[in-house]
Amino acid sequence: MLQISAEHEAAVQELQIAFEDEANAQARYVAFASKANDEGLLGAASLFRAAARAEHIHAASHAWVMSQFGQNAHCAIHPFQPKSTLENLKEALAGERFEVDSLYPDCLKEVAACNILTATRTFTRALEAEKTHALLFEWAIAHIEDEIGSSPMAAPRDFFVCPGCGLMAAELDEDEDCSVCNSLRDRFETVR
Ligand SMILES: [Fe+2]
Ligand SMILES: [Fe+2]
Prior knowledge:
4 helices, 4% strand
């Protein structure tokens, strides 16, 4: 690895922390999607697959910024045990809220003094995208807990993921570009 300035060291540390968080979230969501399939909650499985894709986008973005400083992102995937899908959704929601309320605000605070635009941008985009993840997990939990008839969690369904920032949506207008990173609507990925 290249030597980096002390000025950039704090930013790299925060990028590494965020990369590890996102990579672990991705791994959990892949496993949670499999569990949801087993339980016949195919819509929840779709949601977890879309969220896994979004967390991959975040992890890759953080890793790219690190690479600009000559640093390689790395992490261990921590052991976890999938539970019921409802419990997994609640764990996912808690993780998203942690990212929105704590992780990314702390990351942004740390890099504020560094004036590194790429680090600020990747954290800001992830923070805003995680808010959309939390809303979708809340929505899924409410549908399962309330046992709403013809639940949207029962059948596979499309979710839309912005490739630029990992924003997620259950529905998109035809002409609605990304509200976070301005990626064009046509570039959104459909995950089912
Ligand atoms: Fe997320
Ligand atoms: Fe976006």
